[in-house]
Structure formats: C-alpha cells, structure tokens
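User: structure tokens for this one?
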Amino acid sequence: MAADSATVEVDGHRIALTHLRKVLYPASGTTKSEVIAYFAEVAHAMIPHLADRPVTRKRWPDGVTTAPFFHKDLPKGTPSWVPRRTIRHSDGPKDYPLVDSPATLAWLGQIAALELHVPQWTFGSAAASVAGGDGEITEAVFDAVHPNRLVFDLDPGPGVELVDCAHVARAVRERMGGAALVPVTSGSKGIHLYAWLDGSLTSDDASAYAREIAEAIEQDMPDLVVSRMAKSLRRGKVFIDWSQNNGSKTTIAPYSLRGREHPTVAAPRTWEELADPELRHLEYTEVLELLAAAPDPMQGLEDGDNDGAETRGGSRRRGRGPDTKLDTYRSMRSADKTPEPVPEPGLLPQGDDDTFVIQEHHARRLHYDFRLERDGVLVSWAVPKGVPESTGRNHLAVHTEDHPMDYADFAGEIPHGEYGGGTVSIWDRGTYATEKWREDEVIIVLHGGKARGRYALIRTGGKNWLMHRMKDQSPQPKQYDDHRPATPTAPVTARPAPARSTRPEPPKDLRPMLATAGSVEDVADERRWRFEGKWDGIRAIATVGPSGLTLRSRLGNDVTPTYPELAVLAELLDGHSAVLDGEIVALQDGRTSFHEMQKRMNVQRARDVARVMRDVPVQFWIFDVLNLDGISLLDKRYDDRRRILEALPLTGGVCLVPPQLAGPARDALRGSADRQWEGIVAKLGDSTYQPGRRSHSWLKIKNFLDLEVVVVGWSPGTGRREGTVGALLLAVPDGAGGLRYAGKVGTGFTDAILDQLMQALAPLRADRSAVADTIPRADAAGAIWVRPELVGEVKYGQWTPERRLRATSWRGLRPDKTVADLIAGSAPPPS
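Assistant:
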C-alpha cells in the first residue's frame, strides 16, 4: 500500500503531503493522492486560466460528503513562497493566493481545495485601470476593472438537460457574431461560455453587454430561455446568467475539480463535442485522456489567440520534451498518414534565424504559407493573396502553428481528408534579416528569388495579422529584439528611420454609442429628433488610417478578415483617415437579413471566407463619423457629424450612407416596416457621441406587426405553466385555399388568458394536425392537435426565410373572425 504521507520537491519548494490515502470522493474511491496527481498532470493547461487572478477556494478536507470550508483569505500556515495579493473588502483586507506554478497547485491539493473560483479580471488589469500601478485594490472599484474574459453561465432549471444547455450555447454563439467562444461543461449542472475581451470594457460594461445578449436570446427562444434572476421563472428553462461578469463575482476555473458526488471537472470542450446528443459532464480521468490526445480548447484565450474551439487536433500525444513549440503541429498530423515531416520530440535545431520559405498551397483554396526561422522552428502565417507586391495593398496574414525546420524543404501531396490536404510546392525561399521581432510586430528584409525587400507583419487581433510592403526599401541595421541580441547576417549601413506618413493614425479604441429601447411616445418634441433605419446586421467600428482598414465588433474583436470586401472603404476615403460607425449587413431579396448574416459571422479562416462571400456578400451601411483626419468629432452635434459624413465620398455599392427617414416618428417607423427593417433609431439632432455608453439621446424603436392566425395545436407547458398551454401552434392561409404552418407563440399569456384558451381548445381536440405536411418534427413532438376553428391575433417582428413568424406575442382570440373569412379575404403573408 502506498505511503500515507510524503515530502516532495516541486519547483524548488518542499511540500509535506499528508493523509494521501484519505478518500475524498467515496462514490468513486478517489483519494487525496489522486487529486494531487491530477493537479500535477493538468497544471500546464490549468495555470494559464488562473494566473494573476485572486483564487477563492472551497475545501473538503474530510471528503465531499461533508460540508465544505469556503476561503477567500489565506489560512494561517500558508507557505511563505505561495504568491499572494491583497484586496481591501468592507470587512478588512484579505490576502488571496495567485496560482502561478505546479507547486502552488500541489499545495492546494494538500489542503483539499477542490474547487477554485476566479473573476474574469486579473490583478494586472485591475491595477492598470484603477490604481495606475500594482498596489492594493478595493472591492469598491470592482465594477470599473477591465476584464479580459467574458463569461455566460448557462444554468439548467428543473426538467432541463445538458443537451438543452448546448442548444442555447449555440444560440449565444450565433448572437455573438465574430467572437470566438469556448464552451466549458461546468462539471456541476450547466455550461460556461468564454470569450476574450481586449480590455476596453469595464466589468460593468461587460455585464451590460452580456445581459443584452441574454435578453435577446430570451426573446428569440422564450420557451427555453430566461435571462431574469428569479428562480421561480427557471423551471423548464435555461437561465443565461450574465451577472458573473460583475467584478465582484467569480466562476469556477477551467479544469477545476468539483465538490460533487463524483470527481467531475469544469472541462473545456470543442463545439464538435458539444453537438453530441449524449453530452455529459466529464470526470478528471477523462479530461486527462483528452489533454493527452490534443491541446486545451481554451489555449490562447487569455491573449485573444483562440480560434473558437472548433475541433480537437489529432490523436497524437503531446510532446514533453523541450520542443513544446511543435505540440500543436504534431497534434494535427499523423506521420503514417501524411508525407509532411513529423519529428519525434527532442531538442530543437540551432540555426542563424535567417531562413525563409514561401510555399504555394493548393488546398480547398489556393493560399501561400509564409515561414520564418525563429528559435529552431518555422514561425508560420497563411497569406491568402501571397506576399504584397506594392506598398498600397496590405494582405491578410493568419498566424498558424509553428512548423519544424524540415518543412523548409517540403513539397508534395498531402492526402485529402488530412489537415491541409492538397498540393504544396515551394514558391520562393532564401534568407532574411530581422529588424524587429515583437509579439505584435515583425519587420524583416527578404533576400529571395521573387520576394525581396522590407516587409512588416503587424498583428491586428487574435491570429490575424497584416503583411505590408514598406515604402522605404533600404535595409535597416538589425536591432535588438524583445528577448535576445540579434546577429546581422551581413554588414549594413545605418540610415535615418523612414519618415512617417503625414496621414494621421486615428484612434483605435473607440467603442460604439448605444441606444436605449423606447417607443414613438418617447419622441416628444419631434422637431429635435432625426430618424435612421434599424437593420438586422452586425454593429462595427471601422478605422481607416495609414495601416489600412480595421473593423471591430461591438465587443471590440477584430473582424476585418471576416469581411474582406469591405477593404474598398479605404479606397473610397481617398487618403482620409477616419473612424466610422455603421452596420455590416447581408441582403436577401433587397432587405437586410440576419439569417443570411449568420452565414458570415462565424467564418474566420481565409479559405472559408473566400468560399462563403461569393454566396453571401455584405455591405457596410455607415451612419456616423467619430474622427476625421485626426480631428475628434465626438463633441460635435449629431446634425454636424451627419453633414460631414454625407460630404465624404462614400457612394460605393459596398460601403454607403443610407438616407435618413422622414418624420414624424410614426411615419419613420412605418417607412422602416415597408422596407421590412427591424425598426428605427431616433437620435437627438444636438446630441454628442458618447463612446461605449447607453444614452437616452438615441432611442431604438422596433417594428411589431399584427397578424391574424389560425390555432392548429398547442404544446403543454412546464414549470409554472404545467397543466396548461406552453405555446400555441399557428397556421396562416397558403394562398391556395388551405393553411400552412407559421410557427409558435409562447408569450403574451396572462393566467386569465390561459384559462380562456384551455376552455376554447378542449372541445376541439383532434387526432392529427391540419398542417401535418408543413410542420417541423421538432415542433410537432408532444403537440396536442385541435381542429382549425379558432382565429387569434399575434404581434410579431418579422418572417424568417423558412416562412416562420419571429418574435411573436399573443394578443388574443378573434371571435369576430372565422377561418373561412381568413382564407377568403387574406393574401398569403411574405415568404
């Protein structure tokens, strides 16, 4: 039998481990020794998600069948080498541990701290944004700290399964547009969704943004989703808890154990795994198996370098040797399936950091792989359009996994079905000299057969970079980079630094001003208001300057590569620098379509963007200008900014300024309805632009239309509505003397209305649906059919491409109308 105690040395620290045979999870027999071993195995993946964050602990020293101890402050006897930071709470200062090493994790295992909870901010961001240094922070400023993560907690109510949470997770992903989201099955009940933040939002801002997303999804899915806190509303629904973005709140850390009956884990997952109809929570042994097979799906999230956790890599185990830079490369390839070099783990080769190669890669779409030797590997970018030949055009470069040095000579056929399947040939190769090498900028001089001269690679966000051919082609002396002195490959003559462009660089940190929900009744003095359309698209701030175009979503994420056709904006501005506010939209039958827009929002890889943009082109509809040629316009009146905007040469077919709508408000709203837009935005003519703030100077007023419908069935309610109607199934005239299915309505019911409906529906019960040939299987499941005799009225937002009503609300029965009247007197609704 293993010893019950031991003294181990971890990271140079001696740790006394005791009671190692104590069973902490009686149901599985998992011992304290196994918990400590798990922390040691998972440390490489877990620590990046804990680093520099205050860790709150829940301890079960006597096992999970007993009551836990909850700790914020460090207990007496904490080893002096455990790093700590202080937060001043209302009841006094508390020292929190920082988990920055396997040694600290081992100590936490020793004290049976099974659950580790952290906020979405780090001490570094808190100090920088609040105190301007690294001193103590106070809980009074939690709402002002700047988090680097956004989290949604999808909490299933009674009667809801984990697969239902996965369904809601996909809806959140769609609503988030270009943001890369990583799902984590919490190990307890639900799912957490994480997105990277660039630090421009405060915790208060992040909570408000997450709340808006949650409320929008509740409106889209009222039968399954609730965004309000009241527990009485949660039966049969998934609660989207947006409040964990509050600076004072914490969430279970990824890879933390849970104090449940079995040793489950808050496990990062891929979206592919989340689609499993038998999705379940994972125990720690299963998590270790996944990590042995492929990288952490959250890898890179902390610095915005995560691609959305689409799939895990291949089945090859991670290398444990010094060449961990090639872990990702190996995980995506198998040596017995591809002719590419797949070296075994070992020492990386030493070189002069002066080799480059450009490979022409005919995969699903032609692109070029640009690779630079650096510290024993080839640092790699995929450049869809190849190395830019002129200084006037920047090309997208997507940072990919490091490749082995042997890849510099590789040319051949990668089998179809394997990663990167297709033909690879060497387009050019040679040597290069480094002028600058930082995490966000690389400047090099290429000496190749085709590619020659000075180039800059500039990181714009996440894995997306721009490759730029520099105007001054004179080689500069090789400079010291960020981590070691450089050795020039040949003597060069020092020259003055190239002159900067006279075109000013506009600010890149402006966030969009937000509108408050309102109605036409809120527009009192209509002479003061101006009216614009509200469209079903994606809000974006466009920055155009010397470095080209950058598009940032409302969340602050760089979405430039997702919409390459909008690069024409820089050409239209004809030398101007500007910051513009607008909506990226996709059109269907001449109107904005969120359904079509979704086909573009989550596409990030260059080859996929090129494929989808042919079928779903987008436009940029611009409605405000925030900065022009280095001059801030934020304090200018809306009317003045609008005149400046309309004077700019934005008249292309892709980027344009839509005209305002004529007032008064009701006429403007009616005009937007005629165009089948989502509604209008009313803006005060003398209002200034308030970046990142929600203001009553802008009011968003949505269109809701009325429609008479036929009730053809109903779905039984759950939770508070158990025993009565959950949703009504609706039909409308099909234009040929019959009916077709039009969707469901599950909101707008009072208790009195529900009683009225039950009395009216009971005598109409039928064995089959009157529209069985047009109703989707998912909607038909569990439905109770009725004869199509009841006419009612609903309020709705719009029609979906599947000819279903969207954003419906029940208005009441229409006893004055018959189904025959409806069929005889109604044209079919829009399709």
